[in-house]
User: Which sequence fits this backbone?
């Protein structure tokens, strides 16, 4: 059986904030129906890399991205950014619903993208997908800000799913949530993998071990005054956690797990 085509092909990607280079020569292929987790110490460029996948770095003045990123074979660096952001959705660390009704949180994005179908039906479907429909169906006109943090995060995911993305990016999606909400969002991610490509940044190695198919370990290389982020090892989850091929990966994983052993992280 031939391997599936990658959803995202990243080749020789470097990122600069003004004169400072923060990512060096990152290459990796990310596959559909998989969760890919990016791990590594603070400041190694995980969020920067994630933001390249939906061109959010374009919004940061002075950012320069060099290299190639293809989304199902199409160059995303030359695609209209609105198309990239519809096809590659993103969920952030802190739930960020609009200060509007639950209904409008989803309807706004649909209208902005010229959706011509049944908006009510689409809202019901996406809220059902995230397990929120029964909880909110009688208060769709109420402010999304009245929902709990975990409900807000699922609403943000529903808002993303309503646009039928091909790839979903998640930057620490559970770190601001309580343990019960975390479990619900993790179960949701596990289910969503069947239909989407999911790329997730996490500091929580247990979360990566529970959810990821592939893991990318990123690290910082100090060169004089400069701190350069690089992708050190990219491999199936069991290899990264049990038998990494690079010493730096082993050192990071062992240190993190010594601080918070598997089974004791939330
Ligand atoms: N908007 C920005 N302008 C300038 N430098 C930035 C900007 N955003 C990030 N950086 C720098 O780029 C480097 C990588 O940051 P990034 O947030 O991508 O790392 P990270 O691995 O996601 O970190 P963390 O795990 O702490 O969230 C850091 O040195 C950071 O200070």
Assistant:
């Amino acid at each position: 059986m031939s391997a599936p085509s990658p959803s995202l092909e990243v080749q020789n990607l470097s990122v600069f904030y003004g004169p400072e280079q923060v990512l060096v020569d990152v290459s990796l292929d990310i596959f559909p129906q998989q969760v890919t987790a990016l791990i590594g110490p603070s400041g190694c460029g995980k969020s920067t890399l994630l933001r390249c996948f939906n061109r959010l770095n374009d919004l940061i003045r002075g950012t320069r991205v060099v290299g190639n990123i293809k989304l199902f074979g199409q160059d995303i660096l030359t695609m209209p950014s609105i198309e990239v952001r519809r096809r590659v959705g993103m969920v952030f660390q802190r739930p960020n619903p609009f200060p509007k009704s639950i209904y409008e949180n989803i309807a706004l994005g649909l209208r902005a993208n010229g959706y011509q179908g049944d908006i009510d039906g689409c809202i019901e479907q996406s809220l059902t997908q995230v397990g929120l429909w029964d909880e909110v169906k009688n208060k769709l006109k109420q402010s999304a800000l009245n929902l709990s943090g975990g409900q807000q995060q699922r609403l943000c995911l529903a808002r993303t799913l309503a646009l039928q993305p091909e790839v979903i990016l998640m930057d620490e999606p559970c770190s601001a949530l309580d343990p019960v909400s975390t479990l619900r969002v993790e179960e949701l991610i596990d289910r969503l993998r069947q239909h989407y490509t999911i790329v997730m940044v996490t500091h929580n190695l247990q979360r990566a071990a529970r959810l990821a198919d592939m893991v990318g370990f990123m690290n910082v290389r100090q060169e004089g005054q400069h701190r350069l982020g690089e992708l050190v090892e990219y491999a199936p989850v069991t290899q990264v956690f049990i038998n990494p091929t690079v010493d730096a990966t082993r050192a990071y994983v062992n240190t993190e797990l010594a601080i918070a052993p598997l089974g004791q992280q939330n």
Remarks:
- The chain is about 35% helix and 25% strand.
- The pocket of adenosine-5'-triphosphate is lined by residues 17, 22, 40, 42-48, 60, 227, 229 (CB under 6 Å).
